[in-house]
Amino acid sequence: MTKRRGIYGDYAEAFKFFSPNARHFLAGSILLGIGANLISLLFSLYLKRLDFTEVAIGTMLSTRALGATVIALPASFIISRLDPRRLLPVVATLTAASYVAQSLAISGFLMASGVFFAGALSTIFQVISGPFFMRNSGESERMHLFSLNGALSMGTGLIGSLLGGGLKDVLVTLGVGEITAYRAVLLVGCAFVLSAAVPYSRIGPVTAVTGAPARRGSGFEGIDAVLWFKLIFPGFLVGLGAGLTIPYLNLYFKDTFGLGDTAIGAAVAAGQVATFIGIAAGPEVARRMGKPRAVFWTQFLSVPLILVLAFVRSLPLALVAYLARQALMNMSTPIQDNFSLELVAPERQGLMNAIKMLSWTGSWTIAARLSGSLIFANGFSTSFALTAALYALSTLCYRLFFIPRHARNG
Hints:
The protein is mostly helical. Helices cover 83% and strands 0% of the residues. 55% of the residues are buried.
């Protein structure tokens, strides 16, 4: 894969080397992504229709992140002891059930419980993916596998977002009550999540393509604390910034520009396409620049785009900034994930993935809970400005930690 060719050619060549297990995992990611993105788009709008305030919506959404935070570390030990062939289909089924609960519950406690368990169970897929790909891929196709998984999980949002916003509006046009329409479409998303159990159940015995033995970790003994801090802390800052704004992007477009649900769905879908393109381009960018420099520049260029969202009240400019930010900021995620796992021993990869997830979701939870009140009191500009500052600080840390001084000047 050293010849020059387009992105499509690179992935077509890499795909030939993907193991059957990796392909089944990707198929499950597609179905899971469609359902999860559909639910993500509509759920906060559904809460708004139920007369939840921004503060209450922030509290409810942060419950999902709380579930992810609670399960992240235990998940690393769960996946090291249970066969993915048995674990993944069960988790997909339970995740779908949790989404059903949050969609149909009529009490705040039951709804929050569904959101909590959906967040916790969904985290298992994220914790398991990195070590799973490391064990089921060779070095030549691994970066493409990480990026394709990220691109698919985000790119399926095109289908989920368009289906969610469009189907809800169609039902309302046909005379279905708006709340009933929201619930019906949320259940469609639940069905997609449940269907992911089928390809997950086809995963075979997990063996390392490279032939390296998969050993169980032994807790935290022998960990290079300084290295792990450098790998984790920038993501913590990004999680804080993301929690301040990402859960409220659909409300941002509705409240700031007066967009309807179908238009919001189209905007979010376009954002998913931009994300797909950005992530898909990641391996080529990483090959040309090196992984640390690629992460630095993609995040650095995202900061001014967030400031456009904060202070510019032009819908065309806001949409361009949103799409460019989606492509650039998300391009770095699979590159960072692959780079982090390369620097730790195979038996520590599950733990690294879990702690990174714990750090990100923990900071996201804190920020999401605070941001609802912040937006309610001051509007969206303050939250976006704080997000830009946190992203800039994360970018600076990554530069100091992983780009040698001579490389910065070279």
